[in-house]
Design brief:
Number of strands: 12
Shape: elongated
Radius of gyration: 22 Å
CATH class of the largest domain: Alpha Beta
Number of helices: 19
CATH architecture of the largest domain: 3-Layer(aba) Sandwich
Largest sheet: 6 strands, parallel
CATH superfamily of the largest domain: Glycogen Phosphorylase B
Structural class: alpha/beta
Distance between the termini: 25 Å
Strand order of the largest sheet: 2-1-3-4-5-6
Helix content: 40-55%
Length: 393
């Protein structure tokens, strides 16, 4: 069995979409390859882990001389392993998620990204990310699109008949005779949450509730406020992952009695919210340098049988296929968003039919198995270039 080495700094027990993707990918690839793994598992200081990464990889390659391919899980890992380009003949394939390619810092683009295209292969989670790579000099013949998968078992979790009472008693939300719109994510500007409240919710009646979940603070920290006044503050916020829409969002939340932010909620509650909502929204707006690489949460909503409305921009268009598992709307067009929401809510039976159709499409096209098969196909092309023709998936 062919041997490969997977190197990732996103892996359980840490929790998150990329951690889950790494775990499922490595587990799935083990069906095709003898898979060796170097993973950060939250058991040491991450800076020290990165500092010792070179010796870890060299030790693994020395221990297993039959390794035919190395996979790095994202652009930051690729940047940390640039030495591989000169120190091994083993082909290296990197997965790119979006911001790891588009991050708008001149130094990063000129000194780091300009070298990433020297690796033997790139797997991009969306066509948007692939196009951004090719703009930066990546070889289109060795730059592939393999869309992320979603945990389709989420669709099997039964609905909790008592969750409506929990919403009322625990979260203070009475949804009797109400329409429910759900949004999930960190309060960063590109997500469009404060834009949606300011521009779309005002066009809907008060019987339509917006419920939001995700980590949120009552106000930005002193450090975060200080950064806002520095030159290049936008880039610093992107680099540090600062939730730069927190202040605007909190201001808006205080003005409306039909908009609720639950903060971070347990996974069990999140699953029930996804089932309970009439519509899931992903109202992203364009923020230069902070593009959406994919749109995994939209797939999770679809899996739970909730219809998805999303902005038709960036990597979202690889997750939400217009007319198949959701509707793509013009980013920033409040009237288009409000009109579509009103249309869908006016006929709940038709809305349910659309949601079921979307769920079926997502189940058929976005399973972990589909993703793993895509990676396997790419890896075989890179390992055996003479017996395979290159093409984009």
């Amino acid at each position: 069995m062919t041997e490969i080495l997977c190197v990732t700094h996103k892996y359980p027990p840490s929790i998150g979409g990329m951690e889950k993707q790494s775990y499922e990918l490595i587990k799935g690839l083990s069906k095709y390859y003898k898979t060796h793994v170097i993973a950060y598992q939250n058991d040491s200081n991450k800076t020290f882990w990165f500092a010792s990464l070179r010796s870890k990889i060299q030790k693994e390659l020395s221990k297993h001389p039959g390794i035919k391919l190395i996979h790095l899980n994202d652009g930051s890992m690729a940047a940390a392993c640039l030495w591989l380009q000169k120190n091994t003949y083993i082909p290296v394939v990197v997965t790119y998620h979006g911001l790891d390619i588009t991050f708008p810092l001149d130094f990063y683009q000129s000194k780091i990204v300009s070298k990433l295209n020297k690796y033997q292969g790139a797997v991009c989670v969306s066509e948007f990310t692939r196009n951004e790579c090719i703009k930066r000099g990546f070889d289109e013949n060795t730059t592939f699109t393999v869309r992320n998968g979603v945990d389709i078992s989420m669709g099997d979790i039964p609905k909790d008949s008592e969750f409506v009472d929990k919403l009322k008693n625990h979260y203070g939300i009475n949804i009797t005779n109400k329409n429910i719109i759900l949004a999930i994510g960190r309060p960063v500007k590109r997500k469009g949450f404060s834009w949606f409240i300011k521009n779309v919710m005002l066009l809907l009646d008060k019987n339509t509730l917006l419920i939001m979940t995700g980590p949120i603070k009552n106000e930005p920290s002193f450090f975060e406020k200080s950064i806002q006044h520095l030159p290049g503050s936008h880039n610093i916020e992107l680099l540090l992952g600062i939730a730069n829409d927190t202040e605007d969002l909190n201001k808006e939340l205080g003005k409306h009695n039909n908009i609720f932010h639950l903060g971070s909620v347990p996974f069990s509650d999140l699953v029930q919210l996804l089932s309970l909502a009439d519509i899931f929204v992903m109202p992203n707006i364009v923020v230069e340098g902070d593009e959406e690489g994919f749109g995994l949460v939209a797939l999770e909503a679809s899996i739970r049988g909730t219809y998805v409305l999303a902005s038709g921009i960036e990597g979202i268009t690889d997750a939400v296929i217009d007319g198949k598992n959701g509707t793509l709307l013009p980013s920033g067009d409040a009237a288009a968003w409000a009109d579509k929401i009103k249309e869908l809510l006016s006929d709940k039976n038709k809305l349910q039919e659309l949601a079921e159709k979307g769920k079926k499409y997502t189940l058929e096209n976005y399973s972990w198995n589909n993703m793993i098969s895509g990676y396997h196909e790419v890896f075989e092309m890179i390992i055996n270039p003479l017996t395979n023709s290159h093409h984009s998936r």
